[in-house]
Design brief:
One of its GO terms (molecular function) is phosphorelay sensor kinase activity. InterPro entries: Bact_2-comp_sensor_kinase, HAMP_dom, HATPase_C_sf, Sig_transdc_His_kin_internal. This is Two-component system sensor histidine kinase YesM. The chain is α+β, with helices and mostly antiparallel strands and 587 residues long. The protein starts with a helix and ends in a 13-residue tail after the last strand. The strands form four sheets. The protein has a six-stranded antiparallel β-sheet with strand order 3-2-1-6-5-4, with helices on both faces. The chain has a five-stranded antiparallel β-sheet with strand order 8-7-11-10-9, sandwiched between helices. Among the domains are: 114 residues, 2-Layer Sandwich (Beta-Lactamase); 94 residues; 164 residues, 2-Layer Sandwich (Heat Shock Protein 90).
């Protein structure tokens, strides 16, 4: 059962695929061959039937004319004179009458190809007049045979000593009295068998004329052992006037066609070996089967060749993958043929090489991360100390009552508290905005008379959104550092929040040095594409990449010329956590 349910291997699949394509054509070819064979068999059968019936009717018409002539000739005056009044005729009259009779006999002989001799036996003269011998003695034995009464309309033939006759005694006598004359027409058996030879499709066939009473048979190939069962099978079955049958004799099949003549009392039979008649059709079918067999062998060989061509490199590739699975990265496979597998092997080598590089990169990154954690712990000592000292300063300033110092120390303490608190990678947008606002308040104390700040309120619907830490403050810091610090007065900074259908747009805009579209586009291209950021855009690139990593390509930073005349940085974030990039999923 397990063997039956086992997966089919590649070689078997190839063979089955080829057979699935070819077998319908083979079946169709066999059906077409069968249809053609049946049509050919039917046409051959009809041809044999038509031919045997045509020749049977031809003989019937020919012998019918002979019989009608004999009946008409029996009433000629010359025969009456010679048989009843010969003694009163002079020698010259008798000779002229005999010549007239012979002339009539010669006419009959010339009108039928089957007539060998026509003779009149006149007992009163004791002489016989024939178409080939003017005057002679009556052959006694032949005379008695021909004087036998026959039915000219049902069985006119008389067979004697290998010779075939049609006879007419006139008048028909009883009590064994002698007739006035006996008219006999000898049929040429050679002419009949010559006609039979025309029937033959091949040398192994034959034709015969059989008396329906089975008293005689004339055949162009007298094979008694074969003819006896054929005659017995056909002639003894009454009621059929024509037909075609299959007969087996001595291990060979024959197609036998026959036609019965009721007027002549005979049956015309022709037979052909079935192998000779349908041999070409059978051989074509045999060759078709040979072709099918060869096709199956070719399919098996081609499938095996393709199997070898595909299976061998596949095995080599699978073994290579198993080595990689076991951790062996120092592997390189070679393939010397220029085909699709060459591409696969090259890509495999590239994959292994890339895996090695990535393993090294991951190891180095892990090492650097561990080193950075140590550095961070070391660096946190001073900020925490500074943060605690600021809160001490805040409490002391409250005792002195200096409001500016109180606010400054408060904003500075909150700022450093947010920066040094690194237990979370993401914070709510409300906390992020508050951190940026603390930074702006600190800078506002520093640049109290130089820079005016418009900081919009964060919409309530977006306050709880979780975003990466420190994304807004670096953008504002960048505006102070590169656009506003050098201004002695009338510096402008605007931070706005614009709700969109699928997210929030945060804009940071300044009125620094004159900004144009070309410069903005240049900065934008560097932001999006440059692997080595300029100092002016390094903080923005860091923010942009973190937002793209977190939310996808649709989100991040974009730069343009602002309404205040300086640079406008737009930060686009989604409305909620439904938007997570593919690289960030599962983390």
């Amino acid at each position: 059962m397990e063997r039956i349910l086992a997966p089919i291997n590649t070689y078997s699949k190839l063979v089955l695929a080829f057979l699935f394509v070819v077998v319908p054509f083979f079946v169709l070819s066999l059906k077409i061959n069968e249809f053609g064979s049946n049509n050919v068999n039917r046409e051959i059968t009809l041809s044999m039937q038509s031919k045997i019936r045509f020749y049977n009717e031809l003989m019937g018409d020919d012998f019918g004319r002979i019989i009608n002539w004999m009946k008409a000739f029996s009433s000629h005056d010359e025969l009456d004179l010679l048989s009843n009044q010969a003694e009163i005729l002079s020698a010259n009259e008798k000779r002229e009458t005999i010549l007239k009779v012979q002339k009539e006999l010669e006419i009959l002989q010339s009108t039928s190809q089957f007539v060998k001799n026509v003779s009149v036996h006149i007992p009163s003269l004791g002489r016989t007049i024939s178409s080939i011998n003017l005057f002679g003695d009556i052959p006694e034995e032949e005379f008695h045979v021909l004087n036998t009464p026959t039915n000219l309309f049902e069985a006119p033939f008389v067979y004697w000593n290998g010779r075939l006759f049609i006879s007419l005694s006139f008048p028909i006598m009883v009590n064994n009295t002698s007739p006035e004359f006996v008219l006999g027409v000898e049929i040429s058996i050679d002419k009949l068998t010559g006609m039979f030879d025309q029937f033959a499709i091949n040398p192994h066939g034959g034709t015969l004329l059989v008396d329906n009473k089975r008293q005689w048979t004339i055949a162009n190939k007298p094979n008694t052992a074969l003819l006896e069962p054929m005659i017995r099978d056909i002639v003894e079955k009454e009621g059929e006037t024509h037909g075609i049958r299959q007969m087996k004799w001595n291990g060979q099949s024959y197609m036998v066609s026959f036609a019965v003549s009721q007027a002549l009392g005979t049956t015309l039979v022709t037979y052909e070996p079935e192998e000779e008649v349908f041999g070409s059709v059978h051989r074509f079918r045999e060759w078709l089967w040979v072709l099918i067999g060869l096709a199956v062998i070719v399919i098996a060989l081609v499938s095996f060749f393709l199997y070898r061509v595909i299976h061998k490199p596949m095995n080599q590739l699978v073994r290579a993958f198993r080595r990689v699975e076991r951790g062996d990265m120092n592997i390189s496979v070679t393939y010397n043929h220029h085909d699709e597998f060459n591409y696969l092997f090259a890509q495999f080598n590239n994959m292994v090489r890339r895996l090695q590089e990535m393993i090294v990169e991951v190891y180095e990154q892990k090492y650097r991360a561990q080193h950075a954690e140590i550095k961070q712990l070391q660096s946190q000592i001073n900020p925490h100390f500074f943060y605690n000292s600021l809160f001490i300063l805040y409490r002391l300033s409250k005792k002195t009552g200096d409001e500016v110092l109180i606010r400054f120390s408060k904003y500075l303490g909150d700022y450093f508290e947010f920066v040094t608190r690194n237990t979370r990678t993401e914070v709510s947008l409300r906390e992020e905005v508050q951190h940026a606002l603390n930074y702006v308040e600190i800078q506002s104390i520093r640049f109290a008379h130089q820079i005016k700040v418009d900081f919009d309120e964060l919409p309530i619907d977006f306050q709880a959104i979780q975003i990466p830490r420190i994304v807004l403050q670096p953008i504002i810091e960048n505006a102070y550092k590169y656009a506003l610090e050098e201004k002695e007065d009338e510096g402008r900074l605007a931070v706005r929040f614009d709700a969109e259908p699928d997210g929030l747009m945060i804009s940071v805009e300044d009125n620094g040095e004159a900004m144009n579209e070309t410069r903005a586009q240049e900065l934008n291209n560097r932001l999006l594409n440059s692997p080595d950021p300029m100092e002016e855009t390094s903080g923005m690139i860091n923010v942009h990449r973190r937002l793209k990593y977190r939310y996808g390509e649709k989100y991040g930073l974009s730069l343009s010329v602002g309404e205040l005349g300086g640079l406008k940085v737009s930060i686009r974030i989604p409305r909620g956590d439904d938007h997570v990039s593919d690289s960030h999923r599962g983390q």
